[in-house]
Specification:
The protein is an alpha/beta fold. It has four domains: 227 residues, Bacterial extracellular solute-binding protein, family 7 (D-Maltodextrin-Binding Protein, domain 2, 3-Layer(aba) Sandwich); 144 residues, 2-Layer Sandwich (Beta-Lactamase), CATH 3.30.450; 168 residues, Histidine kinase-like ATPase, C-terminal domain (Heat Shock Protein 90), CATH 3.30.565.10; 118 residues, Response regulator (Rossmann fold), CATH 3.40.50. Helix content is 46%, strand content 21%. It contains 29 helices and 30 strands.
């Protein structure tokens, strides 16, 4: 049915009203939009507020697009970087764009899983600062933004390269570039997005120092707004994969603004005029067509050059990243190998290596510590230094041979064997300037950019030098620890040997005492006397063993007096001759008029015999020579510090005794163990050996130095402190034997066998004996019988109260009481602290009945003095 115009109009109005009603109802039913507060800080072109107070930037546009899809109502809250960070942390802001991961921020922020953009850091310099590489910032002032990750990355980079510089912090990146342009700082660090977008606004120079690419994310307070991050992750993941997505369009619009910029009106007017002229001059265009084609080719050539320049810049950036990665690895066993690998990749070298210098004379060599060749780790070689290109590097510090290195160093076999044409090397020095080795890169073709390679090598050489110095210091520390442990082990064994000798001497004292008493009670014609005399000799031989053990423990100064060392050697000439092979010649070179030395002649002769028999064993069945020489030497601290470990001698005059042979010599490993007890290289070797020698020398405050080399013989040099000649006769005088006296002796010893044996011996001399089991018991007994006791014979080492403390108590009770001390240790070791305190005598265990009688009678005779 036809519809009239008025009716049709009414129908249309009804339909429109219905549609509007439905739309209103739909809006009422729809969920309200979520309000999202977003922090905006000055970081153009990523985020910033324009002059009209509107949020701008590519991250803002990405967020607006996502808000439209998710029905978010965005509220942009401006502030500084730190203000936005604090508000987000407190939960006042829901989202914070452009946040980089750091360990500190991970503690209080949640980040999206998909980065919104990848940035890197770039260094700008003042035009007059002449900063072209990171090495040029040494000692300069560098501006960074407060709390900015780009500045922190640059600080870390300078620390890795050991480049000191001063940092000044600014509120934003605009202030950083403004300070660089004004000369307030020499250089400044910004993000590449900000720098590329605004560098033309400031009078600054972009340097080639580009470093530390890092991803930025959207962030929110810990445990909040996970749905916001999840939605943004979905959108970013899809947009980054599709090159035609709105994500890439937004980035292109902000980072490449010229692409979307419309032409100004005058361009159109000029184009119209030009078109008219072209129509009029079409004939002229045809004439000059060839010139146009030539110009077009020139433009294409220029474009190709620009492409090559961009490719070169990308290669440079890759190399810088490679340098940062190479020198930034932590120290460790594989550090140097990782270093040369990154060096080879950064410099595009066929071979890269780090080597250390071995030796200090004409026979010096270079030993490679890490080698990277033809794309893989290679074997480390060793080559002679004289005549090589390495020798030139160590002399000059750095050498660059872009080509023809084989012709320059024809005597270098390594260059010929590997077919090398170019070489760049740098010397490695420690903090004191001492040469440690070198680092180098080599190629089988000439270098196209030797300056760049030399710059890279300087950077890597600084890091390699620091690592070599660290490794050397660590090796020295370990060696010192080994020496200390070795000295402690010898000292512990010495303490053990001294203790065993002391206890063994107690046993021998008891045996010798009972045996001497038995000898007195037997008739001179008794058949048992020869057996007892043999037993006495055996006991004395056992006593010699304890003296060796005391000598090893460093407590072996027995009968010490001034001796002529030459005379000590001459007295044993015959004994030495019969102790060595008939094929070996014994030679003496004894200096005249040597000073005397304080020594126990028997102990020194034992040392000489030990060294000579060892020298004979080293020569073996071959013909050879053993040389004994004496001399006088003035030794300073530098020389004495080179003596065998554990010896502390003062500078001054020393009488030296050298025992040298033409035998097989010793390796470094053997030399390090020769003074260990029971260590030997002989099939039949046994006993304390040279360890007792070392103990005897320590007891004489003497030193020893060893010169030996495998296959070239050995020299032992003994050093005895010289002393002035004593007045009067050298030989000690025998004391006059006083008449026998009668009295009471307090015998103090914790060993019952000692009390029984010594008590019997004293009673055989006609003395009365009172005993005590230790120092406390001795003080109690003496307190009760102080008026009847004439003499005290007391052991030094006892439980509860030792002889030293008991001696002091007894002297306080009766200052005139004579006290004889006895010990299994030697006299010098035992009575040092009693000198000048009225000690009546000392008996070293084991002692004979004759020694006991003489010492007791001398003490009783001096009672009234």
């Amino acid at each position: 049915m036809p519809v009239h115009a008025p009716a049709r109009s009414a129908l249309i109005r009804c339909l429109l009203a219905g549609a509007l009603l439905l739309l209103a109802l739909g809006r009422l039913e729809a969920a309200p939009a979520r309000r999202v507060r977003v922090g905006i800080f000055p970081n153009p072109p990523a985020t910033f507020m324009d002059r009209n107070g509107q949020a701008q930037g590519f991250l803002v546009d990405l967020l607006r697009e996502e808000a439209a899809r998710e029905h978010w109502e965005l509220e942009f809250v401006p502030g500084t970087w730190f203000e936005c960070l604090d508000r987000t942390r407190a939960g006042d802001l829901d989202l914070l764009p452009s946040v980089a991961h750091t360990p500190e921020r991970d503690a209080y922020l949640d980040f999206g899983q998909v980065p919104s953009f990848t940035m890197w850091s770039i260094l700008y310099a003042h035009p007059g600062a002449r900063i072209h590489s990171i090495l040029d910032v040494r000692g300069r002032k560098v501006g960074i933004m407060l709390g900015d990750v780009n500045g922190e990355h640059f600080k870390q980079l300078c620390a890795k390269f050991n480049i000191p510089c001063e940092f000044e912090e600014f509120g934003n990146q605009s202030d950083v570039l403004a300070a660089v342009a004004a000369g307030g700082v020499d250089a400044g660090v910004t993000a590449n997005t900000f720098g590329y977008a605004h560098e033309s606004e400031y009078r600054v120079e972009r340097t080639s120092v580009v470093f530390n690419p890092f991803d930025i994310f959207y962030g929110t307070a810990k445990g909040r707004n996970d749905d916001l991050l999840a939605a943004l992750d979905r959108s970013l993941a899809a947009g980054r994969k599709d090159p035609d997505s709105s994500y890439h369009h937004i980035l292109n619009r902000w980072l490449n603004p010229d692409r979307g910029r419309s032409m100004p009106p005058w361009v159109y007017r000029t184009g119209v005029a030009t078109l008219a002229l072209l129509l009029v001059a079409v004939g002229t265009v045809l004439v000059f067509r060839r010139r146009v084609l030539a110009a077009t080719e020139e433009v294409r050539s220029l474009a190709a050059g620009l492409e090559r320049e961009l490719a070169s810049r990308r290669l440079l950036e890759e190399r810088i990243f490679r340098v940062a990665e190479g020198v930034g690895v932590s120290t460790g066993g594989s550090f140097l190998q990782d270093l040369v690998r990154h060096l080879a990749l950064a410099s595009e070298a066929d071979i890269a290596f780090v080597g250390e210098r071995i030796g200090r004379e004409a026979g010096d060599t270079i030993r490679a510590l890490a080698t990277f060749q033809d794309g893989r780790d290679a074997e480390n070689l060793e080559w002679p230094l004289p005549g090589s290109v390495s020798e030139q590097v160590l002399k000059e510090g750095i050498c660059v041979f872009p080509s023809g290195v084989q012709e320059a160093f024809p005597e270098d076999p390594g260059l010929r064997q590997t077919g090398l044409q170019s070489y760049v090397g740098a010397a490695l020095r420690d903090s004191g300037g001492r040469v440690l080795g070198l680092i180098g890169v080599c190629n089988r073709h000439p270098l196209s950019n030797p300056t760049l390679v030399a710059s890279l090598l300087r950077i890597f050489s600084a890091r390699a030098s620091a690592e070599l110095e660290r490794q050397n210091a660590e090796q020295e520390r370990l060696e010192l620890e080994r020496q200390v442990q070795h000295a402690q082990k010898l000292e512990s064994l010495g303490v053990l040997a001294g203790g065993i000798a002391h206890d063994f001497n107690n046993l021998l004292t008891a045996m010798l005492g009972h045996m001497n008493v038995a000898q007195l009670k037997l008739a001179p014609e008794s058949p048992a006397l020869p057996h007892l005399e043999s037993l006495e000799r055996i006991i004395h031989r056992a006593s010699d063993l304890t003296r060796q053990m005391l000598a090893y423990s460093g407590k072996g100064r027995f009968v010490v007096r001034p001796y002529d060392l030459n005379q000590v050697v001459r007295e044993m000439t015959h004994l030495l001759e019969v102790s060595i092979s008939k094929k070996i010649a014994l030679r003496f070179h004894l200096a005249e008029a040597l000073p005397l030395v304080q020594a126990d002649a028997a102990q020194i002769q034992q040392v000489i015999m030990n060294l000579v028999t060892n020298a004979s064993d080293a020569i073996g069945d071959r013909e050879g020579t053993i040389r004994l020489a004496t001399s006088l030497a003035e030794l300073d601290r530098r020389y004495l510090d080179q003596l065998y470990q554990g010896q502390d001698l003062a500078p001054g005059s020393y009488v030296a005794l050298e025992v040298s042979d033409t035998g097989c010599g010793m390796s470094q490993e053997v030399q390090g163990r020769i003074f260990e007890p029971f260590f030997t290289t002989k099939v039949t070797g046994r006993g304390l050996g040279l360890s007792a020698t070392l103990g005897i020398l320590k007891g004489h405050h003497a030193g020893i130095r060893i010169y030996s080399e495998a296959g070239r013989g050995t020299t032992f040099r003994l050093l005895f402190p010289a002393c002035p000649a004593p007045s009067g006769e050298d030989a000690p005088r025998e004391p006059a034997r006083p008449p026998r006296q009668i009295g009471t002796v307090l015998l103090v010893d914790d060993e019952q066998m000692i009390r029984e044996a010594a008590g019997a011996a004293l009673e055989s001399l006609g003395l009365q004996v009172v005993t005590a089991v230790d120092g406390l018991d001795a003080v109690e007994v003496f307190t009760r019988q102080k008026d009847t006791i004439d003499l005290v014979l007391m052991d030094l080492t006892m439980p509860h109260m030792d002889g030293r403390e008991a001696f002091q108590h007894l002297r306080r009770i009766r200052p005139d009481i004579p006290v004889i001390l006895s010990s299994g240790y030697n006299e010098q070791e035992s009575i040092q602290q009693f000198l000048g305190r009225g000690l009546a005598g000392f008996l070293q265990k084991p002692y004979t009945l004759q020694a006991l009688e003489r010492t007791v009678q001398e003490a009783l005779a001096r009672r009234g003095d």
